[in-house]
Design goal:
Layout: E1 26-27, H1 29-43, H2 53-57, E2 63-64, H3 70-94, H4 98-116, E3 132-134, H5 136-152, H6 158-162, E4 168-170, H7 175-191
Antiparallel strand pairs: 1-2, 3-4
Helix pairs in contact: 4-5, 4-7
Length: 193
Amino acid sequence: MMSTAAEPTDAPERTSFPLAQGRTRGYDRDAVDEFLARARRVFEGDGTEPLTSHDVRRAAFPLARHGYAIAAVDAALSRIEDAFAARERETALADGDVEEWVGATREVAQEVLDRLSRRKGRRFDRVGALRYGYRVDEVDLVGDKLARYLADGEPVSVEQVRSVAFRMQRGGYREAQVDAVLDAVVDVMLAVR
């Protein structure tokens, strides 16, 4: 009779993402599987550590040969972030914190709108002349569209904001500041869905 080794029970369950093709690197499979297992535990109420929609958005994974296809994982993370954000909104509203929730969302939206209303080329700090940052003209173009969304309700989707990418230029905008504003816009969009 042949015996089989039992799988360890604490090993993360493998997901079914496609693998990166050819020489393209993908997200490290173990890192993705561990994060998704943690997210599932927290969402189902079994997790002891906190995890928010913002944490899901900021998740990053090392690249590896034979890793998961990046686009497929990113799409799944977007859906998970949406689910966490909806639960956070529902919890705040169920706790009777409607005014606080709306007030906080308005405050963030106004802060972002104030920044995006600055003169073009001066909306964010710049990196040094010899360093690379986001292209100023591209960021300002996206900033104008987001300002119209916040001020006038011009249509913009969460996916458009999540997937925005900028080329680099010497002396460009500081990446961390631009990314923080994009994150804040996503937070506002998810809060008012």
